[in-house]
Amino acid sequence: MARTLKAPPPEPAGSLADRAYDLFREGLRTGTFRPGQRLLETELAEQLGMSRTPVREAIRRLQSEGLIAHLPARGLCVAAYDAAQVDELYVMREALEGTAARLAAQHAGRPEIALLQRMLAQEEGLTGEAAAEHNRRFHRALHQAAHNRYLLRSLSAISDALLLLGPTTLETAGRAAAARAEHARIVAAIAARDGAAAEAAARAHIAAAHEARLAMAATEPA
């Protein structure tokens, strides 16, 4: 007798909401969703390939994290930052990244330092989205090496906010090479267990990224 295959159980609504959340964040990274873009729940559900219920749950989560906003007369939109908010974001990022580098110099194990050194070597020749993704992974590895769960939580919120800024600053002329040199100074200081130098190098790195972001904004059409 032929065996009858059972249909897999339906995926829990919570799992679908998590998937919708992850897909939306990925859309921010890839530019599918742009800051200020209007969102319709029905269209978003169709675009993500699922029903409105998990999408609605994901939207609530994204709103609580500041990635989606509800604007008067416009409804749901991808959040967009003004110039003052961008400045405030980079001020906090500089402070937190500096702290992470200092703590990494104090607490990182040898395997974590070796990982940062390998990732540094892998940066050579990367461009475009490959460079941007590698940069995100490098910073995550640095954050993990700090061994501070509360700092990690704050840096995760900063990383989420950066999704709303559009293209990476690594796309500006000369920025990728400069970032590699800045990363090298951070990793060298961490390997030397020099917390002060690691913090200074990390702060300088984020300050340079901030300058590049301002330069990108200055060339955008009004």
Automatic annotation (TrEMBL):
Record has DNA-binding as a keyword: yes
PROSITE patterns registered for this protein in UniProt: HTH_GNTR
GO MF: DNA-binding transcription factor activity; sequence-specific DNA binding
InterPro entries per UniProt: AsnC-type_HTH_dom (IPR000485), GntR_C (IPR011711), TF_FadR/GntR_C (IPR008920), Tscrpt_reg_HTH_GntR (IPR000524), WH-like_DNA-bd_sf (IPR036388), WH_DNA-bd_sf (IPR036390)
Keyword Disulfide bond: no
Keywords per UniProt: DNA-binding, Transcription, Transcription regulation
Name of the protein this chain belongs to: GntR family transcriptional regulator
Phylogenetic classification of the source organism: Bacteria, Pseudomonadati, Pseudomonadota, Alphaproteobacteria, Acetobacterales
